[in-house]
Design goal:
Elements lengths: L7 H10 L10 H15 L22 H5 L14 H13 L8 E4 L3 H11 L7 E4 L12 H7 L6 H39 L1
Parallel strand pairs: 1-2
Helix pairs in contact: 1-2, 4-5
Amino acid sequence: MELVNLKKSELIHYCKKHNIQNYSNLKKTELMKHIKHSLNKKKGGKPSNTNLNPIIQITRHARSCNNEVKYRINLKETDPSIVNRGIFQTILFAEKNRTKFESNYVYVSCLLRTWITAICLYSKGQTDLTLHISPYLKEKYTKSSIQYVKETGNHPVPLSKSIPQLLKFLNNIDTLKNKIKEIEKKKKKNKKKRKKKK
């Protein structure tokens, strides 16, 4: 297919059809380069040389268990997960801001809460979501005492512990999403009732 002969609207349709991301603000010539670059990358080749600047978005993790217990150190975990409220808020935020979370390749730290946050934000029913676990994307600490590690909650646990926690989350995410939908329906219903009373 010759991209030069297509109108910009046809190029945008082509991007949607072939799941090519980050195209919305591009001019026609940039869009053609972006499509060629994306297709080449999908085929396993090296990305073609384009003038496009990659968009890097940095996101903080959702509310973790350690955020909830604050200063009660005896309740803190070394590598805490996300609390249910944090999961709910993150999923709702992602649904309301869907265009901000379109990438299928997300870099996360070695901490479980960043994996779960990325899944909540970037998972939109696609078949693949690649999480690149980067060991140095976390706060640096120099003290090695067990107490300090627990206080900060920034120390990864062995994969034999974190993977089962992630699997537990993945096995329950649909249930959580259904609960969110129920809550949102109730909110809308109550809002309509209040408007009728006025």
